[in-house]
Amino acid sequence: MSGPDPVELSTNPFDDDKLHEECGVFGVFGNPDATALTALGLHALQHRGQEAAGVVSFDGQQFHTERHIGLVGDHFTKASVIERLPGDKAIGHTRYSTTGAPVLRNVQPLFAEFAAGGFAVAHNGNITNALTLQRMLQKRGSIFQSTSDTETLIHLTATSDRGHLVERFVDALRQLEGAYAIVALSEKKMIGCRDPLGVRPLVLGDLDGAYVLSSETCALDIIGARFVRDIEPGEMVIITEEGGLESIRPFIEQKPRFCIFEYVYFSRPDSIVEGTNVYSVRKSIGAELARESGMPADLVIPVPDSGTPAAIGYAQEAGIPFELGIIRNHYVGRTFIEPSDHIRHLGVKLKHNANRKMLEGKRVVLVDDSIVRGTTSLKIVQMVREAGAGEVHMRIASPPTMNSCFYGVDTPEKSKLLASRMSIEEMADYIKVDSLAFLTIDGLYRAVGETKRNAEQPQFCDACFTGDYPTRLTDRSNNTTVRQLSLLAEAG
Amino acid sequence: MSGPDPVELSTNPFDDDKLHEECGVFGVFGNPDATALTALGLHALQHRGQEAAGVVSFDGQQFHTERHIGLVGDHFTKASVIERLPGDKAIGHTRYSTTGAPVLRNVQPLFAEFAAGGFAVAHNGNITNALTLQRMLQKRGSIFQSTSDTETLIHLTATSDRGHLVERFVDALRQLEGAYAIVALSEKKMIGCRDPLGVRPLVLGDLDGAYVLSSETCALDIIGARFVRDIEPGEMVIITEEGGLESIRPFIEQKPRFCIFEYVYFSRPDSIVEGTNVYSVRKSIGAELARESGMPADLVIPVPDSGTPAAIGYAQEAGIPFELGIIRNHYVGRTFIEPSDHIRHLGVKLKHNANRKMLEGKRVVLVDDSIVRGTTSLKIVQMVREAGAGEVHMRIASPPTMNSCFYGVDTPEKSKLLASRMSIEEMADYIKVDSLAFLTIDGLYRAVGETKRNAEQPQFCDACFTGDYPTRLTDRSNNTTVRQLSLLAEAG
Amino acid sequence: MSGPDPVELSTNPFDDDKLHEECGVFGVFGNPDATALTALGLHALQHRGQEAAGVVSFDGQQFHTERHIGLVGDHFTKASVIERLPGDKAIGHTRYSTTGAPVLRNVQPLFAEFAAGGFAVAHNGNITNALTLQRMLQKRGSIFQSTSDTETLIHLTATSDRGHLVERFVDALRQLEGAYAIVALSEKKMIGCRDPLGVRPLVLGDLDGAYVLSSETCALDIIGARFVRDIEPGEMVIITEEGGLESIRPFIEQKPRFCIFEYVYFSRPDSIVEGTNVYSVRKSIGAELARESGMPADLVIPVPDSGTPAAIGYAQEAGIPFELGIIRNHYVGRTFIEPSDHIRHLGVKLKHNANRKMLEGKRVVLVDDSIVRGTTSLKIVQMVREAGAGEVHMRIASPPTMNSCFYGVDTPEKSKLLASRMSIEEMADYIKVDSLAFLTIDGLYRAVGETKRNAEQPQFCDACFTGDYPTRLTDRSNNTTVRQLSLLAEAG
Amino acid sequence: MSGPDPVELSTNPFDDDKLHEECGVFGVFGNPDATALTALGLHALQHRGQEAAGVVSFDGQQFHTERHIGLVGDHFTKASVIERLPGDKAIGHTRYSTTGAPVLRNVQPLFAEFAAGGFAVAHNGNITNALTLQRMLQKRGSIFQSTSDTETLIHLTATSDRGHLVERFVDALRQLEGAYAIVALSEKKMIGCRDPLGVRPLVLGDLDGAYVLSSETCALDIIGARFVRDIEPGEMVIITEEGGLESIRPFIEQKPRFCIFEYVYFSRPDSIVEGTNVYSVRKSIGAELARESGMPADLVIPVPDSGTPAAIGYAQEAGIPFELGIIRNHYVGRTFIEPSDHIRHLGVKLKHNANRKMLEGKRVVLVDDSIVRGTTSLKIVQMVREAGAGEVHMRIASPPTMNSCFYGVDTPEKSKLLASRMSIEEMADYIKVDSLAFLTIDGLYRAVGETKRNAEQPQFCDACFTGDYPTRLTDRSNNTTVRQLSLLAEAG
């Protein structure tokens, strides 16, 4: 091809300038269509992880496993796949991966055959001392397939000196630091568990008498299950055919610290998390933003789709028309060849186009949920300006994102986060807006129903905004690294 | 699997209860990155056809072709594919297919080597006497690969007794009845042409001196090309390296009849078609609807995403809050296994979920662009009701769709169209709403800037609403059918 | 990888230093398992073409086609493929391709829908005026998919001004020069035809009353069909349900010139071609060779497997033990990476290994069927020497191959043929043998049962040895070339 | 499809009526092209296992693994695969699997990361107490990926309480019963080891100073390596960069019992195993057979290709002509659809066809290497008779196969072995021959150079003929079974 060297523009919707939740978990106990229901639940949780998905079922005799790279809808829609997963008990997992090429052996649920029987585990979160534990286990002769923290949990369970499986599993969990919401399945039991801080969500549902566990309520809705309650921080529920649901609290009690970013971006707007509807919180955030940093304008324009609820809230509070000034292309490609370097901002245009006629000569409030690296904001603003907008005022529906997350979210290193490198004024210059404002941390706490952030004892995990991590970060302190471990390498 | 037989729920976004535009066309003449630009243009036109896409380029010596089943972003993003299409001239096509399995030999652009050189044609529209012409050609010894009307045009050109290629092409086009917007490429020329009625759109753009042809302006935006003007109904533009652009009018002149449904649903909201911004028309439609059939309500809720602009227009006109009461799952699957038949309405839930907290106890105005078979409306309404809505008033942003389209749109048979079978009251009962109103035909004409529909000489093609077809339907009158024709059948 | 650049060693069994027959044809008329039988027949003809295979069936209503790159056993063994080809009439084709990457549109049988009905053609041979005819047809408006001579035949048939299909087909065939053995299928008829010289073989069989046509008798054996007779040079047989088999002779009669190389290498040893068993001919060739150029030795060693029958004949005539001094690896790979350039002769070793213990210190007669480029002979001889053979005497079971074939065999250009560049002495030096002898042309004619070659009126086509081509070579004289033609290019 | 139900005929060359060696092993230490050489070595060992192949390399920093279902030539011929396996040390494995669908996690070499570093193991043979050991390990918390005996060995090594890797490995091996020839690779060492009885072969080669280990010498030939010596029964060789090759004997010494069937069928005829050329042994077997049970005949015909060397030996000893009366189709398919059930014996014809002209009216001696189930013999004899043979005398180049092998060979259960169910006379009737004779056990011992079998202390493992197993069969005595174990199930 003549002209300048082609540059690959990544337009993967899963790879853009956003933080990414790494996982969704789901389980059904006691319905003859357990696997089909689990596939549907995972589909509704697809926004929590788009790289790969897996389901383990148990048919009373045997466990069955299918794990695939790709969307749930790419694989778990086929009758042949569903039929390979018989049984009335099933758990599933959908995953976003942080590094490198997707590798099947990292796809969950993980399954192991213990001397006492099979055990499958699906995990959302991240263990901050997993590598340290792994080195210890390896010295004792455990052979790892992956560096996955979930596998660490399984080996801890396998080598525990306790008696029954639940005791061994509790013994293993007590050695973990970090955040986890887990759904596990043995021959007799489905187990749901949240870490003592309750950083990641997990809810309980009921479908005609069958128990359902899910990361979010939107996955209960898709199968028509009734929302029963949240699993509580530090709670373990043990579901059996005979005993129904038993709840235990095997950990030392702590003040909960639910992840506040679930409200800002991760969870689906139609979900109810920790008792509160996400869409309503986002609208409240928009209203807070209008009160905190409103200004005269002709239009309120969301950056679709993540900025939309906050933009509606802002527009209603400010009494300024809400308009679709940016149109989203739903047919997202992976990576296009850039035709030449004088055609700039192509990346953003693959997903978004300015609705020129709406913007010409207007004073625009542009609402987005957060700024990570700032690369997308820069391009969006430029596109809006080139379409003729008179003024561009950017309003962000969260405080500046200044710190990495170590609890199951894919964040760039701190040094790549725009807000860790620049002041708000510098950021405004960088992305070339007439004004830029973030929601204050107290504004965010107000939007979720608190009066303000309790600095002594914060009500949420807000480490990405404040740097206040609620657990130890052992592997990080130890600078632990582990070589790529595997008994069985994957084939190409 | 135990339980009732699994039923496959089609949730293909491309196969739902909507009318489908069958094609988008695009071409670049005189830019070294012609193919990469064409791929981008087709990506922006993806909403006009998601089944398959193709590009033909010419490098001064040879034509190159790539055609693939799937989205543009699935294939035309790879450097290897782009490199197989060298040259500074390229045309492309994206296609939605009406019947049966997608077959590669139907994918455009079609390309033929004539004794005088190569010729590639990409076509949006439908020829209503194609089969009749095909039978005539076959008797003379022409061998067809497909029943495609585009191939009919190519054989007419090949066997024409005129001299130069343009003359032969005009000779061929004059034998056609129906609707077409065509982009064609020979070794020396790029040709753009619209049928005398101008049913389908085609626009001219300029990228740093290179000519661009496109179905819609949104595809000019993505590559940063300047919108120059619409190609006019009955106009043929002939672009050459020496002569620039020459415009001829080879057909008997007729009053234009642009497809009004392009404003209602087909075109992208950010496009400017026939001089008017689509988003603005859709907002005006919503406002007309509020004026024609407004009623007291708590919320205006769009059926996402096609109902959104009209819902915003309605909400602004009526002074009722616009809210996202239905959340769309962006990770659309193909077909899931239905877990059991007491879980109903699953199909719609794969794509949409009611935002329960917004809807509980509310009087809701639900806005959608059209009703085709009514199956989706039925499910959406039930979902909204089950989420607790107090009243549901459905408002449709177009008149009742009562007739099939024969001009390049995939419509069900007339008998399958809900509005051809029922009165509005019956439809309201059927989809179980408290009230149902459609936009009037004059309301629609007002929204596009006319005073009213001119019944003698309608300003647009509105046959799907009125049954007033602007051309003869020869094949249909003749009841012409053709056996599956092919020299070379496709492999599995 | 360190070390010298890796070199790819082609070890494809289909791509080695041999001449390659380009096609096998087969057809069944009137058996409910016509397609399965055709698949089996093609499998038995696999040695005549390994690149691709196709089958067309007719079920009384419709024609069905499957064509695939790869071996018959790769595709036509699946129930799903066989079921897509219903009917009691089927024809098939297996193909070796001369140039470039295999492309599906060149795979036969070709099928075309004429105004009068469908017509499928499978062809073994080569038309020497095909390009000249193609140019004529193109000027009249025929659009070609390929440069295949078979498609030329189909367009000639389609545009013939005669009445019925058989008349049109004969009209088309009369315009051809070159070699052809054809099996064709219309809705009512199966047609078999050999060119007037009968260069390529075609036989008639009977399976419980169903007619069978095949390139060789070994394909009758596999399905248990009885061999009836050869189709004669210049004969056309027309098989119908009502009339059984009708034989006509539509061409001007000529003296037959069957391809003598079919005996030397192309046909399978268990086939009976033109009345004679191939294995017996090859043994006679070996015996002739022993008489013409025998010499004292300890062992007779075939180059497996093509040299084996002649080596057995030589050993029996000469009274010297026949031994397996070279062992063939049956698991032939495609192309291995050469580890480093000081490890020579790897290519040949991928297929063959010297049986060292048999060869040490022995005087060896090495028998091969022919020498084409000489590259394999050179390596085989060196391998045998390195294994310790004392003397190596090469005996070739045919005269020197000095000329290209234009009748359906893939031959290198004349300048690449070792025998056209060197005397026998030079060749002996080049491949490093102690002696080298070829069979004389009269020896070859004796082995096939003639007294000697009749120089005035040769009994066979032996142009590869003598340069005496039995037809005009019009395209070659005209230096006709045709641009790559296609209405529909293939996707990657 | 009309007619009787189609029956699938398995004609997989890898699945016919033969015993199958399960594995070949190969390793190179100290050559920059280690992986390419290993791929070539495995290609030469392909006859020992066609289901899957794998290579592990070490580049000084990291281990790299590729394992694929299919032939070596299907995967390890690509530059991209070879480049993913850098390093100057590599080991490889080719495998035939006994049961069920091929599963990637069973493909060797297995690789594990121990606390002390990586360790890869490739194994030919079978451990007769593997399941018993596995149950013990599982109780201690080891998590298995497979039921593979090789993985048992790896866990025994990982959990050993000894110090250095070699000590741990010896500790693990000492717990094994059964047959093994192993090639293993750590960061510093390549290890080769044969069990104390030396049931399976392993040889040492030298390629310009680099050590090579291989199951057979034919794989040394392909890379041009020099054969140094056999690894001895009970010997372990430890190859390091510093120390060269160290030989230890870590096991209690026993009289060797090499597998005599390696001479009869498993090894390639060009290999030298335990000091003797396989082709020569097979010819001697044929001569013994002629002496033991010769009879007047016109032709000696091998069942190709396994019966060919013995047939040559028989023909030379008996003075009867050796002829190719059965022609093999080299293009072996997998499974064809049987067209109808009155066409019998199709299975065998897919691979073999009678050379009718050679057989008509002749008294034939048919030579095959062994009879397993007898199904193939039955069909071959019938095919030869239908081709017109006057008399058919079957001669088998080994004693009756009456017992299963538990040392790494895929044998049917004893009850499926024809010779365990019938006398020789009954077998002759069953396969419908005029006479049938097997080689005597002493005849076999004579052919390999012994005077006779020493019944007290047999010189070879001949359990398949005699039932005299040289080791304990612990799992079998315990009736140990293990549930399907896996941490990570495979994806489809």
UniProtKB/TrEMBL annotation, chains A, B, C, D:
GO MF terms held by the record: 4 iron, 4 sulfur cluster binding; amidophosphoribosyltransferase activity; magnesium ion binding
Swiss-Prot/TrEMBL keywords: 4Fe-4S, Glutamine amidotransferase, Glycosyltransferase, Iron, Iron-sulfur, Magnesium, Metal-binding, Purine biosynthesis, Transferase
GO annotation terms (biological process): 'de novo' IMP biosynthetic process; purine nucleobase biosynthetic process
Active site, renumbered: C23
Gene3D superfamilies: 3.40.50.2020, Glutamine Phosphoribosylpyrophosphate, subunit 1, domain 1
Residues that, per the record, bind Mg(2+): S306, D368, D369
Names of the cofactor(s): Mg(2+); [4Fe-4S] cluster
Enzyme nomenclature, EC number: 2.4.2.14
Sequence similarity: In the C-terminal section; belongs to the purine/pyrimidine phosphoribosyltransferase family.
Protein name as catalogued: Amidophosphoribosyltransferase
Organism field: Rhodobium orientis
Lineage: Bacteria, Pseudomonadati, Pseudomonadota, Alphaproteobacteria, Hyphomicrobiales
